[in-house]
UniProtKB/TrEMBL annotation:
SUPFAM superfamilies, alphabetized: Dehydroquinate synthase-like
Record keywords, A-Z: Oxidoreductase
Domain Fe-containing alcohol dehydrogenase-like C-terminal: 196-378
A Pfam family this chain is assigned to: Fe-ADH
GO terms for MF: alcohol dehydrogenase (NADP+) activity; butanol dehydrogenase (NAD+) activity; metal ion binding; methylglyoxal reductase (NADPH) (acetol producing) activity
GO cellular component, one term: cytosol
InterPro entries, per database record: ADH_Fe/GldA, ADH_Fe_C, BDH-like
Ranges annotated as spanning the membrane: none
Protein's name in the database: NADP-dependent alcohol dehydrogenase
Domain Alcohol dehydrogenase iron-type/glycerol dehydrogenase GldA: 11-180
């Protein structure tokens, strides 16, 4: 076993640290006509937008606010129309994963020949590849998704109760500003979501099968230990710059591709979780914690060796045989999620036994019928995972 062949590409520049918003001036062309995108208003309330405007100086700009958490297709299409009517040539996203994901879609849709619904497949469009996008950048306000340094996005289709992802080599941000001080205004709920979203991103590319990918495994284990170690200090109002700096960079690293080139990747927990958010609006990260615990149980045979490695190297569990280590690792993970007030059972997020048929039907509708690193997670196994997570 060895690292699989890979083709790794990540062109996003990172401007990291206190006061880095002012560097925007250097990296956006002076003559650019900019559309600034943001969410429900936190960037106005907490002064981030004002700092961005100062940095932009006398460049021409307009604002597009109101991008929802779990960004909605129809809202984003309003920004696409605005770009087409008013002729913007650069987009600057200021916000969390939802604003950045939404901006990726807007950037691609503004240049897309034909109906942008066709960017998506899986029951809503034709799945045509993105060939071009407007240049865009981001100012990150919420460490969690790593959208600031990857090329993927997840868009919500309200009517169809679907959350569908897209990606392309053209939808990397040109640069992202990561100022840890921008996280000081985050409520505990979003801090906890960020810790666990990043934690599960690492697990999705780590809890598969061992292939002697030493750097990828070591990097993943360090990220997991870092999140565990920092979590008691990632508290609302506890504005320790060193803690927030490590937190922010760990979340970015968790899904910028650096930990996972050439290794098997799962992503079934995300696939099952997205159906729950589409169904009842649960925060993204809160759908992941119950599902990954159940996945570790239901797909024990496939994941056993890696879960034992996780027990030893992340949780420092050395006592007992492999079975004991496997069990202890699941328990430690559950205790960790509880310690940051995250759900460990679906009942805690409003999903009950009678909802499972619907969730499995939605997976089928979205062609999620062979999930996981081995494409072995059938609808029947997904059903077992939902049931085990109850
Ligand atoms: O909308 P505003 O008013 O800005 O408030 C937001 C929002 O209500 C608030 N917030 C953001 N920064 C803040 C702040 N409040 C106070 N202070 C700040 N500094 O936080 C709320 C949640 O924001 P959102 O962007 O929705 O959260 P998150 O960053 O967790 O993004 C979640 C979205 O990203 C997708 C998820 O599916 C979900 O749609 N994901 C994207 C991924 C990617 N592109 O690679 C991977 C992830 O697995 C995930 O699927
Ligand atoms: Zn996630």
């Amino acid at each position: 076993m060895a690292i699989h062949n890979f083709n790794f590409y990540n062109p996003t520049r990172i401007l990291f640290g206190q006061g880095q918003i002012e560097k925007i001036d250097k990296y956006i062309p002076k003559q650019a006509k900019i559309l600034i995108t943001y969410g429900g208003g936190s960037v106005k309330r907490f002064g981030t937008l004002a700092k961005v405007l100062t940095a932009l100086g006398d460049r021409q700009y307009a604002e597009f606010g109101g991008i929802e958490p779990n960004p909605v297709y129809e809202t984003l299409m309003k920004a696409v129309d605005k770009i087409k009517k008013e002729g913007f040539d650069y987009i600057l996203a200021v916000g969390g994963g939802s604003v950045i994901d939404g901006t990726k879609f807007i950037a691609a849709a503004a240049k897309f020949p034909g109906d942008p619904i066709n960017i998506f497949a899986k029951g809503v469009g034709q799945g045509q590849a993105i060939q071009e996008a407007l240049p865009f950048a981001s100012v990150l306000t919420l460490p969690a998704t790593a959208s600031e340094m990857n090329s993927g996005g997840v868009i919500t289709f309200k009517e169809k109760q679907a959350k569908l992802s897209f990606g392309s080599p053209y939808t990397f941000p040109q640069f992202s500003v990561l100022d840890p001080e921008l996280t000081y205004t985050l409520p505990q709920r979003q801090l906890n979501n960020g810790i666990c979203d990043a934690f599960v991103h690492v697990l999705e590319a780590y809890l598969t099968q061992p292939i002697e990918a030493m750097i990828q495994d070591g990097w993943s284990e360090t990220a997991l230990r870092t999140l565990i170690k920092l979590s008691p200090q990632i508290k609302e109002g506890h504005n320790d710059y060193a803690v927030r700096a490590n937190f922010m960079w760990t979340c970015t690293q968790a899904l910028n591709g650096f930990m996972s080139p050439g290794v098997p990747e799962d992503w079934s927990t995300h696939n099952l979780g997205h159906e729950i958010t589409a169904f009842n609006g649960t925060d993204h990260a809160k759908t992941l914690t119950p599902i990954i615990l159940a996945t570790m149980k239901v797909r024990k045979d496939e994941k056993f060796a890696k879960i034992v490695q996780y027990a030893e190297n992340v949780w420092q569990i050395q006592a007992g045989d492999d079975e004991a280590k496997y069990q202890a690792a699941i328990q430690a993970t559950e205790d960790f999620f509880k310690s940051v007030d995250m759900p460990v059972r679906l009942a805690e997020i409003g999903v009950n036994a009678e909802d499972i048929d619907y969730l499995v039907q939605q997976l089928e509708r979205h062609q999620m019928t062979a999930l996981g690193e081995n494409r072995s997670q059938t609808l029947e196994i997904s059903r077992q995972i939902y049931q085990t997570a109850l």
